[in-house]
Design goal:
heterodimer, A: two-stranded antiparallel sheet, 11 helices, B: alpha/beta, 6-stranded mixed beta sheet
């Protein structure tokens, strides 16, 4: 039972972090960033030396964790900010659909860039192997990593909340997310807020990359896409642009996946995702605005 | 030199021309009403000064700087503070957070924190009701309270010129009177320069000051509000009785 709870929480953590990365950017510029998943993949491959060999040549992955973590976070934030400066800045005035297509295209560019450098073969890597050791908690044997994943996610969520609530930059971001042009008329710098959102979102992508890389031990240039899909769905269920909603829905999706994995009859288990998506449709039928509707997207009264 | 000067401003929304060759200027300390019927281009003009609506032609100068085509955040830094139509309160933020958003742009200056705290107290002194609700969600305030909040918010940036778009919109007449009472008191207190857009010219005649009347994207009258109010020209301008 406890095992299921921890499985749900750790899978939900990944989805929640992913959803948060998407919701942050959607909040400030109404962009659904489909390149987010490829930023995750990029961060994972930043651990390796570029080569198309089947054997992974570990580069940054050898670093001790206290250097490894900041390195990967910086990679994510850096790439994400670069995407903003080179691509998305030109689309500020474009309509959301155009921006979305641009993000798709950008995602493919990143993915094929990785393909060129690393080939499409999945590579195995053993990152911080000491984290795979099981620990015993209340009679359940859990991998240490699962615990760290959950704790890290909680720390990130609390940290982000404090940042948004207590700092001047956080206040400006929240104001901009709700009404961008009004915030600008009060002197909030558009570029700074948007770049801040991209940096945060990229760092979140990097956090996912690290957790995922350590968890699975295989690196695949497609890996970002699957998390991205679930994370995107979580942002929609949560109410696009609502950060709290994105996190909540991320955890719900994680829980739904794990519970169905356990509860479904054996024959139906391969179709687990179909059931999860079915549940998603049901939720959206009853709450098309999402679980927690965001202010900025709601009609003004 | 005038604080604000517009020359030959034209604003277009794709094919539609909302404002055509409008020129006027404002001096420090002046109160100017821009009035006129719906669709006269009043709001477009304000939004163009604020930098959120692009101009198709002409030039705008504020406090000795050309601001045509500048970003809204830079225009705000020159001392222009806008209260848009519909108020645009940040509904998910608290009352106090709403007030503080605009103080960030002075963060590079020395002592901005104590100055912002001082401004906050000054706004609370003018609008005690805002202090009572300081930690409440701004979206839950009533229309009149929200109007006071956005005026307070505009003052927090320590502006040289405050522009207010239709402060009366959606407010009960007595609430509206209260809003104007505070505005006039504030103006006397801080030597504010005020640019107010109103659909009706009645308020302008009551408060006094200068009035510009717009119709069809152009200025039709410009003069002292009380003097204009007694003339027939104003009726003609509103209802479009033209010489046949």
């Amino acid at each position: 039972m406890l095992q299921i709870l921890f499985d749900a929480l750790s899978l939900g953590s990944l989805y929640a972090l992913g959803a948060l990365g998407i919701a942050l950017i959607f909040g400030v510029m109404r962009l659904v960033n489909f390149a987010h998943g490829d930023v995750i993949a990029f961060c994972v491959f930043a651990l390796l030396w570029p080569s198309t060999d089947a054997m992974a040549i570990v580069f940054a992955g050898q670093l001790p964790w206290y250097l490894l973590v900041p390195f990967v976070l910086l990679c994510g934030a850096g790439l994400s900010v670069l995407c903003e400066i080179i691509v998305f800045r030109r689309f500020r005035q474009a309509n959301p659909a155009t921006m979305m297509i641009a993000s798709f295209a950008l995602g493919f560019v990143i993915r094929y860039f990785l393909l060129m450098l690393f080939s499409s073969r999945p590579k195995s890597i053993s990152l911080l192997p000491e984290l795979s050791q099981p620990v015993e908690i209340l009679g359940a044997r859990l991998p240490l990593l699962q615990l760290i994943t959950i704790v890290t996610t909680m720390v990130i969520l609390i940290g982000l909340t404090l940042f948004l609530r207590q700092t001047r930059f956080g206040l400006e971001m929240r104001a901009a997310a709700e009404n961008f042009s009004m915030a600008r008329m009060l002197g909030v710098r558009a570029n700074r807020v948007i770049m801040g959102a991209f940096a945060l979102s990229g760092a979140l992508a990097a956090a996912i990359a690290l957790i995922f890389g350590i968890q699975t031990g295989t690196l695949d240039i497609q890996m970002g896409a699957s998390i991205m899909l679930m994370a995107f769905i979580a942002t929609v269920i949560g109410g696009l642009g609502s950060l709290g909603g994105a996190v909540l829905a991320g955890f719900l999706l994680g829980a739904a996946s794990v519970i169905m994995q356990v509860m479904l009859p054996i024959d139906a288990r391969p179709f687990r995702d179909a059931f999860v998506y079915g549940a998603v449709i049901l939720v959206l039928l009853f709450r098309p605005q999402g679980l927690i509707a965001a202010r900025g997207t709601k009609e003004r009264v | 030199m005038s604080l604000l000067a517009l020359s030959d401003i034209t604003i277009r929304y794709s094919r539609l021309t909302a404002v055509r060759d409008v020129s006027f200027s404002m001096d420090e300390g002046e109160i100017l009403f821009i009035t006129g019927p719906n669709g006269a281009g009043k709001s477009s003009l304000l939004r163009a000064i604020a930098g959120v609506t692009p101009v198709a032609g002409g030039r705008i100068d504020l406090a000795g700087h050309e601001i045509t085509g500048q970003a809204p955040e830079n225009i705000a830094r020159l001392g222009f503070s806008m209260v848009p139509e519909g108020r645009d309160v940040f509904g998910s933020l608290t009352t106090e957070e709403n007030l503080l958003v605009g103080t960030g742009m002075h963060a590079r200056e020395r002592g901005w924190r104590s100055r912002a705290a001082g401004e906050l107290e000054a706004v609370y002194a003018t609008f005690p009701m805002l202090k009572e609700r300081r930690h409440g969600q701004a979206g839950l305030l009533s229309g009149g309270q929200q109007q006071m909040l956005v005026i307070g918010r505009a003052l927090m940036t320590n502006p040289r010129l405050v522009a207010i778009d239709e402060p009366s919109l959606g407010l009960a007449p007595n609430i509206n009177d209260q809003v104007y009472e505070r505005l006039i008191a504030l103006r006397a207190q801080r030597q504010l320069t005020l640019l107010i857009v109103e659909q009706s010219s009645a308020r302008a005649m009551m408060v006094g000051g200068r009035m510009i009347l717009m119709r069809g994207g152009q200025i039709v009258l410009d003069g002292d509000a009380r003097e204009l109010g007694n003339g027939e020209a104003i009726q003609a301008a509103y209802f479009g009785y033209e010489d046949h």
